[in-house]
Design brief:
With about 90 residues, the chain is mainly alpha-helical. It contains two helices and no strands.
Length: about 90
Amino acid sequence: MNIAEWILVAFLSVALLVFLIVGIVALVKWNHLVDEAKKVVKKGQDIAETTNDIAENVKGMTSFGNIIKTVSDTVADNIDKKPKKNPKK
């Protein structure tokens, strides 16, 4: 082999070594990024479940039909509790 071929082989070997090192570092960083993304997704799911539970608890108080039902039940209870006048007196 002449000098030009040795230079080419050395250059390609160094380039391969650099790409391998960069690839390994990028893979390690990618794994850390994936782990953080998993944590964010898990936290998001917990927040969504909590929000769903809160929405179910508040749902009866905020829906229009249930508000009317609650008011009518309260009015009906108040009417039933009032003493009735005796018409015979």
